[in-house]
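re: that chain from earlier
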Amino acid sequence: MKNVTDSFVSLGHWPSAGSFGFNTDILATNLINLSVVLGVLVFFVKGVLSDLLDNRKQRILNTIRNSEELRGGAVEQLEKARTRLRKVEMEADQFRVNGYSEIEREKLNFINSISKTLKQLENYKNETIHFEQQRAINQVRQRVFQQALQGALGTLSSCLNNELHLRTIRANIGMLGAITD
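^ sequence. v structure.
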């Protein structure tokens, strides 16, 4: 007990201990004030801050879980999209190959059709030439026959008398009628 009273007595020896006033030592007063304020804050605010931090932690964890779920869904959709892309690429390749095959087939059909048409035109041309040749030959024959007939008639008329001449004409007309029929 003596130590306790001595300490109060010793406080009395301090110049400002016996009186109420301002302490001008700024560093000492600020540290004391800060430690008291921090102690009070820690004591009273600790629960509130702990609750706020727990709530924030739960929100962050929920956000992370939601993000993981969304990422999983996105990865799943990405895999589905890649599968569809591969399928579409395969179909496109197949269409491309089929398209090229179809183009080649149409090209060959077109070439064959043109070739067939050219052969038909060549045949028509040859037939037309043959027909015109036959017609020209027939016309030449007919003229030669007419000239020969006129020459023979001319010779006969100068050599024959009227009666013989009429008989020969009738015979020739009869032969000519038989040939033209």
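The CA atoms of residues 73 and 171 lie 115 Å apart.
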